[in-house]
Predict the structure.
Amino acid sequence: MKRVIWIVLDSVGMGELPDASEYGDVGSNTIGNIAKEVGLKLPNMQNLGLGNIDGMEGIAATSEPNACYGRLAEISKGKDTTTGHWEMVGIISAKPFPTYPEGFPKDVIDAFCKAAGVDGVLGNCVASGTKIIEKLGEEHLRTGYPIVYTSADSVFQIACHESIYPPERLYEICEAARELLCDEHAVGRVIARPFVGNNAGDFKRTSNRRDFSLKPPKNNLLVKLTENNIPVMAVGKIEDIFCGEGITKAVHTKDNNDGIDKTIEYMENTEGGLIFTNLVEFDMVWGHRNDPAGYAKGLEAFDERLPEIISNMKEDDLLIITADHGCDPTTESTDHSREYVPVLFYGKKLKNNINLGTGSTFANIGQTVADYLGIGNALDAGKSYVNDIIR
């Protein structure tokens, strides 16, 4: 059985989409603006062809790329993690998930309090996750009220101190929220945001974050693979994004390095199927906190470890590196940005230096994976690149 290693560099976009103005994202270019502001050295991805992608800024092209390369546009409505990942596996979202720029309606909060067994909440506003725990964390410790907040994305986030709500209890109230947030209030994700610390000066979010997404439609790549007895191994928050649907095995991670370690462990211990990895720190730690220097160091750290991943590839493995949206840390916004995403296809049996141009949908990746793993053009959306990239 063939094998695909698919790595999503969460939020590593490469320039505004034509409809970026509809999302307030004119000028966003996660890779290009980071390179311009703080510099960026990614020699291993550069050798694969990252700088050769149409429209790429800040990364120089190389004369003989070792991979096939291109960029993809998003046709779904939205710019969040769930929408991006769902589109990659063939689910096109014609309608964006609901957002709450004024906070959640009173009836939603009242229903949440009843379902979660809490007497009230703090916040209920659009906020940065680090700033809101700094602002309301001490009051949370005094009252025991969960901190509820949202962003420009379709999320219902619940921040609680681990001494007040241990992670398992926080997950329970997130599950209660997920169950009631349906129909018109069907947000893309409910997110558990546990934190520790003694006061506003040292509160810090922990790696015990969990995402509780909507259950995806069945007609998607992951379900089709498992229905055909092709295993799907999920690394990082992939299991959460898809509510476990179509997942054979899963492991959560504490940071990017842990995600790379777990990916390599699966590579060492599985013979075939899909290893599907999300590396979340680009988005969660640097993108949303407007930290271009940290973002650059994170990209360079991944690039330094890329040879480890490649050295563990088998003769007929396919490596895919891409992203799910942008989150430009150089703009005033701390939210996701509507951007093209890069895509690199590498393997020992693949052609070199093939420019795939601009694909019309993220689903081209899912269709390629389905085709490569032997279930044909199994998705309702997307174009397979198999004939373009295989020798």
In short: The chain has a mean pLDDT of 96.
